[in-house]
What does this fold into?
Amino acid sequence: MSDQRRVVIIGGGFGGLTAAKRLRRTAVQITLVDQRNHHLFQPLLYQVATAALNPADIATPIRSVLSSQRNVEVLLDRATGIDRVAKKVILAGGELTYDYLVIGTGATHSYFGHPEWAENAPGLKSIEDALEIRRRVLLAYEAAEREATSDQAPWLTFVVVGGGPTGVELAGALAEISRHTLSRDFRHIDPADAKVILLEGEDRVLPVYPPSLSQKAKRQLQGLGVEVRTGRRVTAIDREGVSIGDERIEARTVLWAAGVQASPLARALDVPLDSAGRVLVREDLTVPGDDAVFVIGDLAAVTQDDGTFVPGVAPSAIQEGAHTADNIRRLIRGQPTKPFRYWNKGSLATIGRAAGVADLGRLRLSGAVAWLAWLMIHIFFLIGFRNRVLVLIQWAWSYLTYQRGARLITGAPELQLPDRGDH
Amino acid sequence: MSDQRRVVIIGGGFGGLTAAKRLRRTAVQITLVDQRNHHLFQPLLYQVATAALNPADIATPIRSVLSSQRNVEVLLDRATGIDRVAKKVILAGGELTYDYLVIGTGATHSYFGHPEWAENAPGLKSIEDALEIRRRVLLAYEAAEREATSDQAPWLTFVVVGGGPTGVELAGALAEISRHTLSRDFRHIDPADAKVILLEGEDRVLPVYPPSLSQKAKRQLQGLGVEVRTGRRVTAIDREGVSIGDERIEARTVLWAAGVQASPLARALDVPLDSAGRVLVREDLTVPGDDAVFVIGDLAAVTQDDGTFVPGVAPSAIQEGAHTADNIRRLIRGQPTKPFRYWNKGSLATIGRAAGVADLGRLRLSGAVAWLAWLMIHIFFLIGFRNRVLVLIQWAWSYLTYQRGARLITGAPELQLPDRGDH
It folds into this structure.
């Protein structure tokens, strides 16, 4: 036992979990460290934020995913530092020595140098984030219902900052909630009066997609009632709304889907980072000058032959995790590592009910076909058979009835609502 | 419109919701006030606390339950006072005038004069309570896994205070988690070593059931590995455990299922209360000296012909809500109210997987039959078809695999775990 190599994996996301599973039959001792007890299927997190799915539908305990793999130990802890000389990971509650280290701690929100915006424009990275967004969105309608008619508009204005896949998906879902889900539930407001505004700094939404699909996404969003505004950068966010230069949008609910930055653990490595704080890894995903430390997933800046970076999506993290496991096996056998090559299987985004866009290389889909492809792929990759069945049922239900099954306002110790208007 | 009587209902629990729905065809203007946006199916709350069900499976937005009933307005607010002279309800954010007032704000935990116990022994009344209990239970295993072997025992000791239905159900579920759900997930502990201790002050568990069923419940609990200790009263609870007189139980997880006390709104009525703070209502469920104010559900102390009180369970709240709606209709028509008669349909409690007890008058069931009866009845009364399907699937899954699908640790901003032991 004790002469087996010790592999420490930090982060139980798509990359870390794939690396651990791929080492199933290798004679190594693996410790997977995560500060959460669950693997999170982040591509569906916006469905929790918009009350369609439950947290447990898209999250699975890391322990239970790996329970039958006896060469893995799962440790709930937070890595705070890395001592590459002593080959040690410093944890909040102890330390771990390693022979090979795999870091996949992902990314967090970035407010472009305005951390004070966070309070009024929550982002979407964790279950807690999603529940906080759900709470704010649902409470905004409750507040509007209470207000005098003249004061309802800011409560019924929802601004999504950032027109990437998350922003597009959030905006589409918010529009559907207002038009369909809540349509009969209130007495003093018409939820269909709600305004959903999607702001994107570039000149089109989904800027990493081909322009023709950006155009289709925009039209589908507009069809749902979303106001799409591109080429405009937010200059201020406060409790009452958003400023874009001289223009002002009064909105009590602002959601952030614009910037991400790498997890701060990258800085502990003391190696060159890119502007988003990601580690500029070598071809084989190791950090410069250290053959024992691999960085994968959203934390890694992986340069491709054409000079661009590998995109920060789940499939690339999965491929990098698998490749790193293979490279660790090669190193143990005394063989050289192999360079990583990203295989782009395409991109998909959904825009509300039965609408979406898909860029699958030569094949470009939009509308209901893209939505169906998105649905199938996402359900297929959800971890755990039970989750797949439940998610499918909840979607079938939402699809048939326009209802969203998880419309709970929880977690707030005290309600902060306006006084009741004169009804 | 304006000459219609105004009915204000405070509380969207079983009683309040039933009263509102029963007045569907009556020409009144109803306002239902609740400080939560959801109706909670409390009998299944312990299933959320023990990671088997999701919050949204047992909670439904009050608005969506009543969305098609056009004579109801739902208001998210907290009632802070009642002015019976001016016929007004004082809310945190405004006030409401009424012609008839129905109060069903239920009960909360009571720590028998030891409010300081609350911090270390959470009770189970809300979604937030259930998620906090789930967090503590799951974190206790994580902490044990990290500790040196000699320090694991207090983390693996779970004390449930109170042997009524909630305590019995919680203890049974906790035992199953340790024996089955987590059995293969850890490397440094055997979850089956966990000790679940159920403490009851009376001389038997389920003291309101017939003694023969208490006996059977005790045996079924013991069969699951629960240590049942009756006739013992807790004298102290702190961060490290529980004291019972001179005896000390070291336990990092203590759950409170012992005392309840009526919601503080009862005191705002300025009428006689019983020792648990409940309103001693008249035969027709009105408060003494006021024909316009009804109190129902767990907030009401309803004396029966034999001198005992109507039990504080969902069926009595439902019956009281319906009866009150009928009495309000009678008053509007100028007729006298009728006295309330409780129809006891029986009591059911479940004790883990395929075990339980049922007291259905002459019919007394135990074991798998009681469990099946419990399952059917609870699923039948769950509000919303979607919830029923989802709950049934999750139970089928849990039953077949012993897994619990909602094993998420969420909500804690910072982990507080012991340093890692010497493994």
In short: The first strand of chain A starts at residue 5 and ends at 10. The CA atoms of residues 132 and 411 of chain A lie 8 Å apart. Chain A touches chain B through 59 residues (CB under 8 Å). Chain A has a mean pLDDT of 92.
